[in-house]
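Notebook entry, structure prediction.
Reason for the run: the old model in the group folder had no record of what sequence produced it. Starting over properly, with the input documented here first.
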Amino acid sequence: MSEGGASGGVRGILRLEGLALFAAAIFFYVQAAASWKLFALLFLVPDLSFAFYLFGPRIGAAAYNTMHSTIGPVSLALFALVARPDMPLLIPIALIWFAHVGFDRALGYGLKYASGFSDTHLGAIDKKRQQLA
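New structure, fully documented this time:
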C-alpha cells in the first residue's frame, strides 16, 4: 500500500465510530417514521460506485469515496432542511446514506486510495481477511 492506513486501537475506534453512525442513522430513521421499503431499496445504492473501477483504480476510488464519505449525506440533509423543507423525502434518503456509510465503516471498509480497491484508510482489506483466517 502506497499510503498509510489506520491500525491497532485507532482502527478499532474508527470502526466503532462507524457503528455509532449506523445506529444513530437507524434511530433517526425510526423517528422519521419513513418507509422500510425505501430503506431496503436504497441501502446498497452507494455500492453502485464500484462500477467506476472499470475505468481504473483512480476513478474508481474517487467515485467510491464520493459515495462513501459523510460529506454527501451531510450536504443532502442540510439542503433538505434549509433549502427544501417542502421535500420531506430527502431527510430519509440522507439517513439511509448515513446508515450505509456507517455500516461499511463498522465492517472495516474504509475510504479507498487510488493505489487499489484493497487499500483503505482503515488498513488493507486483504490483511484483514488474512487476520480472520
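Summary: The beta strands are 112-113, 116-120, 123-124.
The old model has been moved to the deprecated folder.
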